[in-house]
Fold this protein.
Amino acid sequence: MEQITPEELKARLDRNDRPLLLDVRQDWETKLCRLENAIHIPIEEIEVRTDELSPDEDIVVYCHQGVRSAAVAQYLRQLGFTRVKNLAGGLDHWARTIDPSMRRY
């Protein structure tokens, strides 16, 4: 499973190298905190909504701690999405290392 650390993602975003950010958390979680410009497709909807994603695009999948997003990233890879990465440690790790002002839960 290919992963990207919060630090690596932040560096990409800072240089305006913007992958598609795919948030696979539940609706209530996205109301608490999220990454700017992320696309929200809850994990239980991913199978019926993959047509909203392009296999040619860089995609970073994230969830709360990286477990659900790792499963989604693996699923997308099985469908032929070769440029998909999981955000290591999820949004919780992002909040702890990159954005301490982000609400944690």
